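Consider the following assembly input.
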Amino acid sequence: MLSSAAEPLPVTPPSVTPPVRKICHVDLDAFYASVEQRDDPALRSRPLAVGGSRERGVVAAASYEARRFGVRSAMPSSQALRLCPELVFVKPRFEVYRAISRQIRGIYEAYTPLVEPLSLDEAYLDVTENLKGIPWASRIATEIRAAIRAETGLTASAGVSYNKFLAKLASDHRKPDGQFVITPEMGPGFVEGLEVARFHGVGPATAAKMHRLGIRTGRDLRERPLAFLQQHFGKAGAHFHAIARGEDDRPVRPDRPRRSSGSETTYPQDLTETGQVEAGVAALAAEVAAWCEQHRWFGRTVTVKLRYADFRTVTRSRTRPLPVRDREALIAAALELVRGLFPLRRPVRLLGVTVGAAEAEAGAQPSFDFGHPPPAGG
Amino acid sequence: MKFTVERAILLKALAHVQSVVERRNTIPILANVLIAVQDGTLRLTATDMEIAVVEEVAGVQVARPGRTTAPAATLYEIVRKLPDGAKVELDHAGGDAALKLRAGRFNTDLAVLPVEDFPSMTEGKLPHGFALPAGQLRELVDRTRFAISTEETRYYLNGIYLHAAEGEGGKVLRAVATDGHRLARVEEPLPKGAEGMPGVIIPRKTVNELRKLAEEVQDEIAIRLSDTKIRFDIGPVQLTSKLIDGTFPEYDRVIPRGNDKVLTVSKKEFAEAVGRVAAISSERSRPVKLSLDRNHLLLSASSAEQGQAQEELDAEVVKYEHTPLEIGFQARYLNDITDQISDQVEFRFADGSAPTVVTDASKPEALYVLMPMRV
């Protein structure tokens, strides 16, 4: 498949120094858990996990009371219970979280249209030029946090700085229910003393690699030349080189286009019959199709994921020349893919259906499908 | 080397060759034109290492044969500013000596670079050869070059794919260009000698130089090629170019065969309406929506800031007898194609999101495929 992102040539930006930006990162404190405690007084001040308590469940969010025991999100529920036997589990209510997230987004949009949500509980705001004409970004952060508390009863933390990287670090600095400003003067110094593992884009594997190279703090990172970082970290090297100096020119992009949409389910009991697997895949495909229809968002690549009881996972996907637009077509495509995995070699614990490679927004210019890109050379 | 030539003759030849010289150049010799005189003939050569243009000029009074190289742009500027009818004398004593240019009371010294440093591009065998009437070559170029991709990562689309193919009415010489969003395919009867030719991708710059040079010619243009190089003999000018070393995609698979919803619309009314309606949009891609109903076409565009615009075309200029259809295209893509069409535009649609075929109702040898936008 050829790149579908082939847009007309970009216009060269004018080479003037941009004004210092004012970026806010707003992060709701223990969002899902706080919502549950808000709505059920019996849960307040108790260690709480949102997620499944059953053997295969995972903690989606933990209240601050639970975090004191070491319970973290994405932790298997069984491990969380070992750490905190008092832990109360509640089922997530995503429709409620989504509704609150929309409500809070309305608060942001009273200040700026440049809102980039990262998830239901986190967003970047560019308030350099804001709708209320407030010159102090920290004042905007204070107002937004007060409005969130008044309208939803929830607390949020905010970070204010001159780019996204530092704004996100700043919101973590006084969490929960606090805010912090990193000014251009403070930026480089703030980064110097930080552990590299706290940097955006430095996951556990990268952090371990940096440690092997003797890089533990922002200062260590800053001392390494660009060529060295590029040699060891490839494309990300330039990003690390910049953030070590507190630099990050990524814009706040409102409504980031989605790249894929999918649904998956772990079954309470493993599936052993092909008929069960087909029914499961068809149900998931129908769910994804409903989402696509509702959001006018259609992808061209259909992927089916299947995890066996022994945790071995296989995926099968196919990219079509045109987006899959209707429910029947998506179900048929998903079934065709999963049937390629029959007969079942072992019981199945999880199934997933994803649609990706979308050209979603109106105004997108799709490309021809020439099949495989031709090889280089004559 | 010393010779005299009429200003107009020299100017014309310099204009032809200097146009391939890159303005920003890191290799000094490539900014120069090679000037050689022998047996009453002047030969001017310029190259950018991808393309070389050689022009032979007769009617030169040679006092002393020889060769040198001088800055092409400067020489061209000077000759251009000389008065019409002037006689120009170029005199080079050899070696590092400056090239002296005299015309009337004007004279100048131009720095030269050694002839030995001037790269030669003309070697290598060109086993395939045929000739095309200049008019046919112009048609092949004009109707395809707007679709050439400018995206350098897909270098194999940065040119016109010229090849022998089996057309509907027999063997044809076919030119194809595409940028992945639209495709242009034009064919002419296969000329003698082109049967065994390899398919070649002629780079965009070569195409543009060729088109300029072909403008003034009425006769046949002789073409010789191998799988790495192509040469055009255009009157007194010889254009040699490297070819793009890549594989052109299987374009045939994106040309739909079964599109059955046919719209015929008068070119003038359609093109003008597209221009007017698209003017509302400030986006670069300027999407225009076509809403079709029986013998009725509504063109519309909207923009979040500017508002919206629409225009109706009815049975006077529109013929469409299928189920209603909505489809969107970039205004520029539509106009690039209608620019090539003389009277009636014929669209063949499958549905609102599938590639659409566009043809000139009176010229079936040219075919365009357009990928719709989301609207």
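The radius of gyration of chain A is 24 Å. Ask yourself how this observation constrains the way the partners meet.
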